[in-house]
Amino acid sequence: QVQLVESGGALAQPGGSLRLSCAASGFTFSAYSMSWLRQAPGKGLEWVSGIYSDGSVTGYSDSVKGRFTISRDNTKNTLYLQMNSLNVEDTALYYCASGWGVGNDRGQGTQVTVSS
User: Fold this and answer.
1) Which end of the chain has fewer surrounding CB within 10 Å, N or C?
2) Could you tell me how far CA 56 lies from the centroid of its own chain?
């Protein structure tokens, strides 16, 4: 069965950086596009970024473009999200998900809190 386990969430200061990781198992990771999603307190699930199965194409929401970078290592079945220039609006539970978009399998999430 599909298993996605996120890690790397933490408390960060505005302007700081974090790197999230997602360990995937139970499916052929290298054959799937992957996404990062997030859900802020009191808000709906938001697509943050996506990457093609071979890493050749990436996409970002307007709210994170230029600050976040998605990547993957298909030899390690791992997805990453490098987050720079964090601001308080980035506070959310971050999920990795199979596929491109919000309507797919996702993990339990890792909490990112940006606060001074």
Assistant:
1) N
2) 17
Q: Tell me how far the alpha carbon of residue 13 is from its chain's centroid.
A: 19
Can you say whether the dihedral through the CA atoms of 17, 97, 40, 58 is positive or negative?
A: positive
Residue 27 to residues 48, 81, 99, 116, Cα–Cα distance (Å): 22, 20, 12, 40
Q: How far apart are CA 62 and CA 112, in angstroms?
A: 19
Q: Quick one: average pLDDT of 80-107?
A: 94
Residue 104 has pLDDT above 90, yes or no: no
Question: What is the rounded distance in angstroms from the CA atom of residue 32 to the CA atom of residue 19?
Answer: 21
In DSSP terms, 68 is beta-bridged to: 83
Which SS3 state, helix, strand or coil, does residue 6 take? Answer: strand
